[in-house]
Amino acid sequence: EGGVFGICDVCQKEIEGAGFWCLHCPSYTVCLGCEGKMEHIDSHVLRVLGIKFVLPKTKQENEDITDEVMKETNNLYSRCKVLNLVTLQQERDIDKICALVKKILKPAPKPKKLKPKPVVEKKKEKPETNIANEAIVAQVTEILGSSYKREVIEEIVRGRPSQNINMDVILNEVLSRDPNKTTSLRDASYGIPVPDAEEKKEAPESLYEFEELVDPADKTRRAIVSDLLATSEQRTNSMIIIGMLEEMKLKFSNDSILCVLRHHPIPDNLQEVVNTLREPNFDAAEWFERDKEAL
């Protein structure tokens, strides 16, 4: 509940507001400002003192709240976006969350019903058999092997007058029909096998053009600072900014956005806050340094 509750073993000053106490070494305490500089046993657990914590909602509780919100809003919004909003908010009141959803999110577009196109089956006309053409097709198939479709060979042979058939021309045209085959006419005539073309697997494209990466240790420390200093209005504005950044395919952590809102000269102008985050030389660590005085 606040007040002085010990002396910091690092800076030797009285600990006010918030700090840490080792559960394994009862005599070891450290203030919030010296937590990153302390040299203590890594396996020991530190208890946070002087901070009122609200137990976070469980995954199932978030799912249940989301179902209620979707029901109250007649399923007008994307369930995925509603779930993200519920997870980030400590609020459990359904009416307040519904009001927040209507303020921040846009209704999801209704899917268009497409009329199925009637399928018309085309009757395949059987080509007239020609004994001379059949003999040429059989000869080409024997030379090239089973790697080439017989239908392709038949189509090429039928397209040429029977009295003017050049075997070399037909073989070259069959080979040129399949871009995955690299065998030359000479290799094909000697029966050299054709290697199969390897399928190239393309790497999946990222959903974001930029995504902020945060070290796990920094992420925990920044979350504690956000719990201490962030206001309800700042949390609401942070959700709006996250939506604005998603439209630009940019992703920043919620704690970084809250930190910028705390120290920006004009935090009510959300577009200016977004412009600050988009600056090439933006460094979240520099903004979190400004929290030391407030802490």
Automatic annotation (TrEMBL):
The keyword NADP does not apply. InterPro entries: Znf_ZZ, Znf_ZZ_sf. Signal peptide: none annotated. One of its GO terms (molecular function) is zinc ion binding. SUPFAM superfamilies: RING/U-box. Residues 8-34 form the ZZ-type domain. Keywords: Metal-binding, Zinc, Zinc-finger. It comes from the Eukaryota. Coiled coil: none annotated. The keyword DNA-binding does not apply. This is ZZ-type domain-containing protein. The lineage of its organism: Eukaryota, Amoebozoa, Discosea, Flabellinia, Vannellidae.
